[in-house]
DNA sequence: GCGAAAATGACAGACGTCAATCATTTTCTT
DNA sequence: AAGAAAATGATTGACGTCTGTCATTTTCGC
């Protein structure tokens, strides 16, 4: 009928429930041959511990902490919103998500997620014995899972879109970096170079994710090189890019940028930009929580590959983003 | 500390546990004023029934049935695989998924999902009092949730990609239908027309999702109209399209088609086609199961919008699709 | 105000696991 | 072989909910 219980395992192994329990939960004090027999019975019966019963008994509710940078970049606030929504959605599943600011100190919890490569915090959490999942921005080192897009792939995607848009013709695409120091941005740029080749990509300008700088530097670049046929904005600060495109009217380069925000969405709809590559923050958050739950349950988190979404003016998601 | 329990609710409402339980589970035989007080207490305390404990007690494991059409189209087999994988993944959550063939009769279960618009089956399930979720293909009527892409949006996306690829030049795009009778296909075509306009879209040919027909009819069409600059394959049967593109060498139209299968994937990598629009079967299945669980728990399923994925040769998902 | 019906309370045994205690048996030491 | 140590078994009471029974109280019709 139903799945086998630990009682069934104990019976099959010819030991008492207590012994089976000691083996399962590693409480020690069990003879090697008993351990083997219990393990074998678990195998044979295909026993899987019922996590709902286990958690009920432990009266454990998963305590997760999420460290999200400040800033209303639009992107981080989308991440925040996603965490709150998931927190709501999983309330019946004994999952409590503590949304914390990056400035707050580390507190105890079952698993933590950091948004962005905040190495110091990751180290602090790891030192405290808390497993860490990184979201959005990977950071090599002792973390248990990375959830986010592959930025090399994202960059290649942007490059491919420019290629398609320049079909048959030569391309002069200007890449706009937030900062050359950010690994994510470097990866995206590298991806674009892979597809477009160095010949079609101009030297990147860096605008520090700042709309003002974006506007100033981009205006300058477009004046200096009237032959620019494409823009690839790798980081943030696109509020400075959009009005420039509006001013140019019909004659503007093909524009690809990242992250679907209210601004970029409106610009797409207005035909001021062409493509938005989006990380799907809500999905990333949901997957991150799945991974955290798996880690807290002592399982290996399922590897997830998030393919960035590609938005045109025609396939924008509705009111349920 | 933890969440309030039904005991807490009863205490706050000034009634016994029994009465609170009767209200919560609608067992009847409760005075109106007691109902109100319990409801109020639930509100005040923010009580949410602990589903894990409830399910444990009911010794309920969710019994779901999935009706997937036969056929190794590649797409349906991907759906099947996704169901099996999710079945595995959720084994610890007392979720049993019964993958059934469309020819099998309806059996009792907590919620069913049909892939494709199989109205007869939906009616049979509904008549048996089983809530139904439809996957991939919507069918208006008494069903509880639809999980799948918006095919109008998918068609618009295809149209937009052709537009981008034809930037500055006139377009002659040939749409290739599976069948004009399928609502999904009609929607996709309509979407493409919205973006490209009737002027750029040639009259559609219909190939009945059959590779042989595809090959024959498409070859004919390309001969008849050498000015074709784009193909939009709306249905299946692309195994007949791909070799044609190979034969044409460098000079081929811009090709957009649907569903990432081993064939279409290889064709993308070989540069024989340009874009694949994919429904993300694995994600659809996962979302469908979420919805089914919510329905079985008596909650309203969260509305989900699945944005079709757009694949080029550069952003194909790795070994974890 | 009386009897019947309705409403309520009290309680108990599940569900599968955890965690602890204590008694008993087996194995090891020398 | 006796005593110590290790291993095992038996048992119990949670966790929060469901479901049932049964006794008691309240309400209602007349």
From TrEMBL, chains A, B:
It comes from the Bacteria. Residues 4-58 form the HTH lacI-type domain. Keywords: DNA-binding, Transcription, Transcription regulation. SMART domains: HTH_LACI. It holds the Pfam family LacI. GO terms for molecular function: DNA-binding transcription factor activity; transcription cis-regulatory region binding. InterPro entries: HTH_LacI, Lambda_DNA-bd_dom_sf, Peripla_BP_I, SBP_2_dom. This is Catabolite control protein A.
